[in-house]
TrEMBL record:
The keyword Iron-sulfur does not apply. It comes from Luteolibacter yonseiensis. SMART domains: HTH_ARAC. Residues 194-291 form the HTH araC/xylS-type domain. This is Helix-turn-helix domain-containing protein.
Length: 291
């Protein structure tokens, strides 16, 4: 699908729609949005830096857009389908699939015309200076057994609403985080991919080619491309760009280095190309992101 023009993402959008229904559990009462106010509170979620989680039964014109989302967002599709904005492109998410939207970038999700969309979500609260749960081998989209996460969120909601057993709340909140980590940090990820991206992260400034990446994995370029698509939801070169921009985002947050210096450090020969790519994927110019 087409990418979103930067001008179209100048401010947050939050349209739930009259027929959308949801259940939400909050870590605290700090979020003052009206639709969050009826959700029960479970302070134990904060131990895993979870801001809120829930089940959404969305219907058009449901649309959420965050220009600078302050934490990782996981979505697991239960029924129907919708679209998410990631890497500057819209991608469909269908039943039995999940996605991870990284923090401090432009993220969005919405229903397709005439189609309902039921999903579970977990929203984290993270600081720019800390490492998010998204890692070098985290998929952007992929297949996912949604039933356990759905059950954990519903159990947490029920216990937070009526039971208030400390032991039960502990177990439910642990399970919610566990199922997110199962998707975000897959231990079953192919060792060849792990080897490639571990090597790349030690030298992001290098002008990596597909053939070089494939040689690290001892695969052909086409085999690596298929494997990356299956495991990560991106092509090898797209994932390389993702890693470079995540490192750039971190450097912009913790250093005073010039944009040109950071661009070279993460593998961009041209500061102009770096700025345009950063704007497309993250939603801000590097200079804007820093401020």
């Amino acid at each position: 699908m087409k990418s979103v023009p930067p001008a179209a993402a100048s401010q947050d959008i939050e349209i739930l729609g009259k027929t959308t229904r949801y259940q939400v559990v909050r870590a605290d009462i700090s979020d003052l949005r009206g639709w969050m106010q009826d959700g029960p509170v479970c302070p134990l979620l904060a131990q895993h830096h979870i801001s809120h989680c829930g089940i959404m039964k969305a219907a058009p014109p449901f649309e959420i857009l965050r220009t600078n989302q302050s934490g990782t967002f996981m979505l697991a599709c239960l029924e129907g389908e919708g679209v998410i904005l990631t890497d500057g492109q819209w991608k469909r998410i269908r039943a039995g699939q999940a996605c991870l939207l990284p923090p401090f970038v432009l993220n969005a999700l919405k229903c397709l015309p005439g189609k309902p969309w039921n999903f579970a979500w977990v929203r984290y609260r993270e600081a720019r200076e800390t490492r998010p749960i998204v890692s070098s081998i985290s998929p952007v989209t992929g297949t996912f057994d949604t039933a356990p996460l759905q059950a954990a969120i519903m159990g947490l909601h029920a216990e937070s609403s009526t039971g208030h057993s400390a032991s039960a709340l502990h177990h439910w909140s642990e399970l919610v985080h566990h199922y997110v980590l199962r998707f975000a940090q897959p231990h079953t990820s192919d060792d060849r991919l792990w080897r490639v991206w571990q090597r790349v992260e030690t030298d992001l400034a290098h002008a990596w080619t597909l053939d070089e990446l494939a040689s690290v994995a001892c695969l052909s370029g086409e085999h690596l491309r298929r494997l990356c698509r299956k495991e990560l939801g991106r092509s090898p070169m797209q994932h390389l760009t993702h890693l470079r921009l995540q490192r750039a985002r971190h450097l912009l947050s913790i250093t005073d280095d010039k944009v040109e210096v950071i661009a070279r450090a993460v593998g961009f020969e041209s500061a102009f190309t770096f700025s345009n790519t950063f704007n497309k994927w993250i939603g801000w110019r590097p200079s804007e992101f820093r401020h």
